[in-house]
Every structure is written in C-alpha cells, then in structure tokens.
Amino acid sequence: MRSRRLRRHRTIPLLLGLVLVLAACTNSGTTTTTAADTEAATVTTGDVSTDTSAPEGSGSDVADLSLAGYTIGVAVVGTQHFWDREAFEGAVAEVERLGGEVVTTDGGRDNAVHAENHDIFLTQKVDAVITILGDSAVEPKLEALQAAGIPVFGVDHASPFVVNNTGSDNFYAGESAGRLMADAIGGEGKVAVFNAFSEALKFCGDRYNTWKYVLDSAYPGIEVIQPELAEEFANAPENARQQTLDLLEQYPVGELDAIHVACWDQPAIGVVEALKEAGRTEIVVSAIDAGPDTLEIMMEDGSPWVVNVAQQPRKIATIAVDNAARYLAGETVLPQSYVDVVPVSGPAQAAAVYEQLGYGD
C-alpha cells in the first residue's frame, strides 16, 4: 500500500487564428495575453477570467474575502519540484491569510498517491479542495468530492469535476516558446522535442500543440525530428540527459539545431548537461517553466539554454484559493482563470526576469 502524507495547519489570523483553432480542438476558451510588462488589467471574456495584476480572479475585491470558519483541503502531486512547491506554499499561505484552516496532502510525485490522498478530504468533510496538478488518476476522486457536495478548485488541473481551474496562459506560453526558439536558430533547421505528457495532461497538450502550430504555420524550414522523445516523470533531468546523449550519436554536428522540452523545464537541465559533456553547445535549448534554478542556468556565460517561459505558480494558487473563497461566499465563479506568463530569451532577459519575479531577494 502506498503511504500518504497528511499535514494540518491551524488558522493564522496569438494570433487570432491560432486561438480559434485551439479553441475548436479543446472546447476551452482562451484570452491571449501580452508580455509581462503589459498594463495591469482584469478581463472577463465568456467563461474565462484573465488576471494580469493582483492575485484575484473575478468578483469581489480580494480585500473583502474571508475563509474564517472554513476548512480547506490542499492536495499537491509533490513538492520536490520548484513549481509544485511554490504553488502549494502559495495556496496554504492564502488560506491562512483569509482565516481558514488547512488540511494538506503531498503525493511525493506519485500521481496514484496524489489521487488517493483526496479520500482524506472526503473523510474529514472539508468545505472545499484545492487540487494542484496530477493526471487522470485523480478524476474519480474529484468526481466523488463533487458528488459529496465538496467544491474543488484546480491549479493547472482542468476537469469537468472542478468549479474553476486556474493556470498559466498555456497557449501564449507555447506560442512564445515556438517563436523564440525558431528565431534563435534562424527560422530553419532540425529540432528534437521531449513530449511525454501532451496526451495525459491538458496544459501540456496546450503548450505543445501551440508550439507545434507556430512552427508548422510560420516556419516551414523547421523540421521536428521523429520519433519524439518522452522523458520520465520521476527522474527527469538524468533521464533526459541520457536520452540526449543517445540522440547526439544519431545526429552529428550540423544535423541538429535545437532541443525543446514541451511541457516543463526540469528535463532541460539534463539536456544542457549532455550538450556540455558532448561539446555540442551549438545546439540551443528551449523549455517552459523558468523557476530560479533554470533561470540561473540560462544566465551562465555561453549557456545553450536560450529560451524559457516563466510562470507564476504562487500567484496561480493564490487566485485558486481566492476563487474558492468567492464561491463559498455565494458568488458565481467562472470556470477558467488565466495568469500571465513571461517569455525569456537569452541571459540578459533571464537575469531581468529572475529579479522581476523576486528570486534574487
């Protein structure tokens, strides 16, 4: 039997055509955002809330929200990875800031354990659940929570059983990664891609599909090598390192121009290590996530990692909790909230975004 971890915290007072194509494919609305320095605004469009300023979704002002008297479950797939840990800590902090009590679980980067952990919230009859990441294994648990009258709010987990899902603008993330990577190799060449999760995780699919659409529609001189690569989840950097070394044996100097990691950026750490080991730093690397560890790699002199797209996981989770507070207060909450991403190109931008997101504090 898999072990579960339970913690308790006590109260502490793009392209319009692109968008239309993807909307038709995924049946989900989207609002394409601009770069991080766009003018602050909150825009409501159909069934989507897009926030680009303070950590608030839609409805009443965040200063008026309260979770006093409520117990909120927060389930995270794991806390080993920066993104997951930052989102988890942001959700817990916001529940406590709003006066609620928190019951937390940590799946230890095991999706099956993460799914089973949701049973704890059913047993304890919490008032709402924030579920952070996870694959399809969690769906029956979310359905059971919904059937029990316990509302669930997703953090990068779109599901028919959540009231609202809050996540990055993954369409813009994929578009930015594709455009910047293509520009970095002069608009033509051969590209390998790590794409293990586009079928299992919707947000990964959104990022990959948009990235691929940009290449297919705007860069006919770029060839995506087949078959695509598939990184392991639990030991991604080392697994990607070994796969990259194998790839380099098949594609000598002049036959491979870029390696892209479609869903996240931990595998890219191993990709960079492999390129350095093989002396193949003419190949550029691109990915999506841009936590402090990977931005630091981009900032190194001569780093082959030249493109990333930074997310704001703490802000995403904070908005999810705020949406839960609004819902429990009787407000209508839109099914989807998006948070801006920040495209990063080259070491100078990596250093600037590192400071902008507070990683240098």
Quick take:
The protein has helices at residues 15-26, 82-97, 111-124, 139-147, 170-184, 202-218, 236-250, 266-278, 292-299, 313-328, 346-356, and strands at residues 6-9, 42-45, 48-51, 71-76, 101-106, 128-132, 152-155, 164-168, 189-194, 222-224, 258-261, 284-286, 305-310, 336-339, 342-345. With 361 residues, the protein is of the alpha/beta class. Strand 12 (284-286), helix 9 and strand 13 (305-310) form a beta-alpha-beta unit.
Report low-confidence residues grouped into runs of 5 or more.
Answer: 1-56
Top CATH class of the largest domain: Alpha Beta
Q: Assign the CATH superfamily of the largest domain.
A: Response regulator
- What fold name stands as the CATH topology of the largest domain? Rossmann fold
Identify the CATH architecture of the largest domain. 3-Layer(aba) Sandwich
Structural class: alpha/beta
Strand order of the largest sheet: 1-5-4-6-7-8-14-3-2
Distance between the termini: 42 Å
Question: How many domains, in number, for the residues?
Answer: 2
Helices and strands, in N-to-C order?
EHEEEHEHEHEEHEHEHEHEHEHEEH
